[in-house]
Design brief:
Elements: E1 12-18, E2 21-26, E3 29-34, H1 46-50, E4 53-55, E5 59-62, E6 67-70, H2 71-75
Antiparallel strand pairs: 1-2, 2-3, 4-5, 5-6
């Protein structure tokens, strides 16, 4: 059994924030999270948006905002139509 090399594609990082959303680098890919689909980030403090942590194998957590998202939810937000009121 071969163990995974640590540090490969395990980094989750917000690359930037625009007036329309944020760019997240995760699992070796860049993802755009629009404020329309992910309203929790729109009026959040920049420091809170940049504070992202990986959670398990396929999840991400913004602890300062109490927001948890799965990679499937990020890639396919239309499959998850319920949005929290902000």
């Amino acid at each position: 059994m071969k163990s995974e090399q640590l540090g490969i594609n395990t980094l989750a990082k917000v690359l930037g924030v625009t007036p329309h959303g944020l760019w997240l680098f995760a699992k070796g890919e860049e993802h755009f999270l629009s404020f329309e689909a992910f309203p929790w980030f729109k009026d959040a403090a920049v420091s809170a948006v940049f504070n992202v942590e990986e959670q398990g194998r396929d999840g991400f957590c913004w602890p300062d905002l109490d927001v948890d998202l799965s990679m499937d939810g990020i890639k396919h937000p239309d499959k998850y139509p319920l949005k929290a009121k902000h």
